[in-house]
Write a structure and sequence with these properties.
The structure is a homodimer of 399-residue chains.
Chain A (H helix, E strand, L loop, with lengths): L2 E3 L11 E6 L11 E16 L7 H9 L4 E11 L5 H19 L6 E8 L6 H7 L10 H7 L8 E7 L4 E8 L12 E6 L5 H14 L15 E6 L13 H23 L7 E9 L2 H13 L1 H8 L5 H10 L10 E4 L2 E5 L2 E2 L4 H8 L3 E7 L5 E8 L3 H8 L4
Parallel strand pairs in A: 4-5, 8-9, 10-14
Antiparallel strand pairs in A: 1-6, 2-3, 3-4, 3-9, 6-7, 7-8, 10-15, 11-12, 11-14, 12-13
Helix pairs in contact in A: 1-2, 5-6, 7-9
């Protein structure tokens, strides 16, 4: 790895990025709920959004504002998702962009907007107007910003890496499974780099990394209307513009992978009610699509997730999930490892010490490795165990 | 409806069918675990099986024995699924058919086999050999048989209907979500009719009804390697052979629908840990496929299921599930009703009395109706609420 993790690093670690947050009254609890990421100069900007056909207003606004692949700030709130809110929701998202633009002295078109929280309620733009001036921007403000996007996440998800001996930095923050009112978990991830980079390459690099990180995590199979990954690159590192096929492009791609994978794993491990991170690697698949769908199906199987919660090496559930995944498999060729202990070889149960496997499963990470022995493709997916707490969180009547 | 429910009816209600069961020691608890359905004469027989690529040995054996669309008996056990057991599992399933054939004095080829229980363990055919003679067959024996297929189901699922003023009878039993050891829920359904019927039409009729009944229920999104629906028709009613396009065919089809839908709803409502049946109807879809996938996605959404458990009219989750279902939808056209109370009209939140809706949701059945207002296709799916108990059942270490 040529990327070096920066201790205490966050989204504002890259040159020229400032952040901050305040409590605006959008959450019922008095924690930070309105934040801004600001770059001192306009950035090349790219976004990837939910595939849900119901797209929240801030997603639609971001897509509009990113047509020119340029942005200078992100304004984000928790407490209200501004989803399923119709035409008025779009007006509210635009108002939020305009308020942030006024605060920062830039054009509303250069402001991206994200929201997370309850669906179907209007955004209190009045509260945003009253409180946006209170957002104090600073180099350390990324930490506050990472708090302001949380809902019932139990910890902040932050990282920054220095690439090629400090030539440039990529920082990022994310949020995952959480609710204020019972609601969908929304995935939000913001990335900021001071690298000078070609917009086309940046989009391609982001798409590639999101595919193997955020698109490979699963908490409960639900896709939020608000899922958003944004990257801003302001070029203040002063490097030569990175474009496809160069050595710098490779270094950037590898560093982006490290950042995205770290944040994705944080989200998976901090799923609602979760006590363990599950890492499912499928090898020897006939195609990449097969490897991906097989890994994701196992990682999202409620029966596998519940068994892992109970430290139960119930491997039949893993095989059954593989069987319904749609991937090409041959039962008689499968090797299966749980916590690196072989449970099945060439489709036949392998004699194992149940107590040994149980003990190994009690850690906070449970790796599952499946060798399909059909081809040469592999993929890894991340999930979490299914606990009574997940049900309790999501069935409590709190609205 | 020309089909009349028979009080106390079961799978042996049709002429010439006998049933019975015994405890053979396959379950750890001392409840019935080995049963037989027997017809006094050979039957036209059709089966539909799991789409899981990992198919249990009894499924593979049934497919082989049904090539001639003829059978005279079903032998079934609980306690062991005989799945993921390789070549030896196939030998064990064949041995079980042979033992039942010996007991009944018929050819092994005319015996169908089904198993439910733990995956990955060999079937104790020795116990079956020792105990098969203890299965006493009788006209009332369908009730015992319906018990012998249960695992953690909380009640038996039985029905019989008399069609066209008693011209012929269709009876059926089923089992759903249940475990002995933590394991996959298996769907088993056996149907028996004394109608004389054309084999081709019977298969077509069964496929149609299974598509709108068993294929539209969901407990947890898992497909078992053992799922099996079998129908035997022995012709002892003495009716003219029913074939496609006749009035009798219509009557048979309608009665079969009643039987399959009843049993499917029983299974959905008796899902592991469930306290409520959820019925999701999607209307106004652009295609039947869209209506089906939309209804099933809502019925299987963990967040919708958890909200219903908590009597929470959290309609945003329903809309979000529709949005990720893959069905064509337009957010601005959707009408949504929960317990027949409108929550959303033309995509906009409709003002409703939250306490009134909450109170209505407290019953044992929660109907959700969605009008997409795009086309003329409709479908209904059934599921159950998601409870802490589901997680507890499936995470307890009991093997």
């Amino acid at each position: 790895m040529n990327a070096k993790s920066i201790p205490g690093g966050t989204i504002t670690s890259a040159k020229g990025f400032l952040g901050g947050a305040t409590y605006a009254g959008l959450k019922t609890k008095g924690s930070l709920d309105l934040g801004i990421l600001y770059s001192e100069v306009p950035c090349v900007a790219v976004g990837l959004f939910t595939t849900n056909r119901i797209k929240a207003a801030p997603v639609l606004l971001c897509q509009k504002h990113l047509v020119n692949r340029r942005a200078q700030a992100i304004v984000v709130n928790a407490g209200c998702a501004n989803a399923c809110t119709g035409e008025r929701g779009l007006e509210d998202a635009a108002a939020m962009a305009k308020l942030a633009a006024g605060r920062l002295g830039i054009a509303p078109q250069d402001v991206l907007v994200a929201s997370t929280g309850v669906i179907g309620e209007r955004l209190a733009t009045g509260l945003i107007a009253e409180n946006i001036e209170k957002v104090a921007l600073s180099k350390e403000g990324g930490h506050e910003l990472s708090q302001a996007i949380l809902t019932t996440d139990t910890y902040t998800k932050e990282i920054a890496v220095a690439v090629e001996g400090g030539k440039f930095i990529i920082g990022g923050i994310a949020k995952g499974a959480g609710m204020i009112h019972p609601n969908l978990a929304t995935l939000l991830c913001f990335l900021a780099t001071d690298a000078a980079i070609d917009a086309h390459f940046l989009e391609q690099a982001l798409r590639k990394e999101v595919d193997i990180s955020f698109n490979m995590i699963t908490i409960d199979g639900e896709t939020s209307p608000n899922d958003t990954v944004l990257i801003l690159a302001n070029g203040l590192a002063g490097n030569e513009i990175i474009s496809e096929g160069t050595r710098e492009a490779e270094a950037f791609q590898a560093a982006l992978e490290e950042v995205c994978t770290y944040l994705a794993k944080c989200i998976a491990g901090d799923g609602e009610g979760a006590t363990k991170l599950i890492e499912v690697t499928v090898e020897g698949a006939l195609s990449l699509a097969d490897a991906r769908v097989a890994a994701r199906t196992v990682a999202s199987s409620p029966l596998v997730k519940a068994a892992i919660h109970g430290n139960d090496p119930n491997w039949g559930r893993i095989i059954a999930a593989l069987g319904r995944s749609g991937a090409e498999i041959e039962g008689s060729k499968i090797d299966l490892f749980l916590n690196n202990i072989c449970l099945m070889e060439e489709g036949c149960p392998y004699t194992f010490d149940r107590d040994e496997v149980r003990a190994a499963m009690m850690g906070s990470e449970v790796p599952i490795r499946v060798c399909l022995n059909l081809g040469s493709f592999a993929a890894t997916a991340w999930g979490c165990d299914l606990t009574e707490e997940y049900v309790t969180i999501n069935s409590e009547y709190t609205t």
